Amino acid sequence: MDLRIRDIDITQKEYRERLLNVKKKMRKKEVDVLIVDQVEHIGYLTGYLPTAAMYQACIVPLNEEPLVILRALDERAFIEQSTNQNYVLFNDWENPLQIVIDVFKNKGWEESRLGLELDSNFLFPTRYQYIVNGLPKAQIVDFSKIIWELKLIKSSYEINCLQNAGRIADQSMLSAILKVKEGVLEREVASEVYDAALRLGADNTRMLLMNSGQRLGSYHGQLGNRRLSNGDIVHIETTPHYKGYTARIMRTAIIGTPSQEQEYIANELIRIQDEQFEAIRPGAIASEVDAIAREQIIKSGLVKKYPNTTGYTLGFIYVPRTSDFTRVFLPNSTWRLEEGMVFHMYLGAQGISFSETIVITNDGYDRLTNLDRKIFIN
What we know:
The chain is built from 10 helices and 17 strands. The chain has helices spanning 12-28, 39-46, 75-81, 96-107, 125-134, 146-150, 156-179, 186-200, 260-278, 286-299; strands at residues 33-36, 57-61, 67-71, 87-90, 113-116, 139-142, 208-212, 233-238, 241-242, 245-246, 249-254, 311-313, 324-328, 342-349, 352-360, 365-367, 375-377.
């Protein structure tokens, strides 16, 4: 298992290619000017990740360079992070939406075909209406899903980032597992994840989902304060980001000796997941890959029903989202796998879970997380 973290820097060429791909989609939809306000999409196109405290946006004209509408407080952060130095500042007492409208009027774009990310977490109904009222002659074009889908196929730079995120996920998981002992607080285990991940280069602040004992099954719940006790099953999922790209991994630790039933469940989950992975290759239909795991886990009697996905997209993600469901593995998923896609694949039953981050290759897949798949006994 290669645990080395390789520092890598994004190139201007990478951002240029991303922008060109967005403009190709703009031409196809006959969009003259696009407003990008989904935070991770601003970061994806410029390198700058704004906070969500105030509205900020990247205006992308079809025939000009992007222009970022930027909170004055964040100018220094923008200069440090962004490859694009074309921006307009606003003070905290000003309305950034009015700044956007003023830019459109000054540029003569009032009657343009205006692309909006109508699925953006940051384009609230009131903000949308403000733009529509401020630019009544603009023709609104829905630009939902498009940038999300452009992000599906990862470049070599992105794969390198995800490989590093996978190494951090592995090592922070191992640090956490070594801390799992009777009498230890859940929070002490969590602190091991954060300490290891941050030292290794993680750049996010939420990088752990964890529960134990009676709290098993609360996968997305709050971190608890209970002390671990003998016989506890401890579920850990580490979710570090490296330069904004996230990998994740689930493992299970048991305090004391696992029962025969627990060992059987773990072995079955691994066997089922291995069979599912064997079907993963470019051109495979997602529903068929999903069915291999979903049908077997129910048929085996490990669970009575399995209502969740068996995998979903990973890549460049930023708060408030913690996952990317642009592509998911479900019974009704008709899309096909393509080389360069990256997924978090997971299975769990009765408190025992295993997951991996994988990248689709030209003839199958590679694991980006490589910690042993087994029950860890402490």
